[in-house]
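Notes from the 1:1 (GR / supervisor)

We went over the backlog. Supervisor wanted to see one worked example end to end before approving the batch request, so GR pasted a single chain during the call. The sequence is below; no edits were made to it. Supervisor asked that the structure be written out right there so they could see what the output format looks like.
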Amino acid sequence: MSLGYFLLPLTLVLTGRLCFGERISRWQAVACALAAVGVVNELLFAPRVSWPAFVVALGYPCYFALRRVLHTNHLGGMWFDMVLSLPVGLWFIAALLPEGAGALRFPVLGILVLGVLSAVALACMIAASQRLKLGLFGLLSYVEPALLVVVSLLLGERIAQSQWLTYGCIWAAILLLMFEGAVALRAIRPRGLPT
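Structure output shown during the call:
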């Protein structure tokens, strides 16, 4: 499934271009190329590509494109999505009931806390998707897996030798996007203000 999250930003860039005619800057195109090299490296060393990877890589772009087309790309639309998914969440909680009340207490609390955290994260994501082109929004979604890798390294996990090219390319793409953002901020800073 992690392969799906590597493919997702690139499919978001393609969706923005093909469905909405969005163009990306030269720096973003170079970042895409770097990320694509990393993804191809990951594909070469993956034993197989599972169907959840394609659900992630193709499902989210369809979701974000559909929200833009239906003009529900706002927080109200997100809350509607949450209400639609509420029965599924309640089903997961109910599925824990046979284990007994003692076993139920922590998982339900954990599910509720994770649900609130996920809703806050999704609200921030929806707010960002309103303000950014789909391509840039997609490329910035590489930040999360890159940060997760940093955390896993701090926790003592190791990156396989074959994956260093993948993560190196993705980190380079993120650094390129940060550089482009810094240059853009510097260009719009009013004259006469201290730097």
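Supervisor's comment: The radius of gyration is 20 Å.
Batch request approved.
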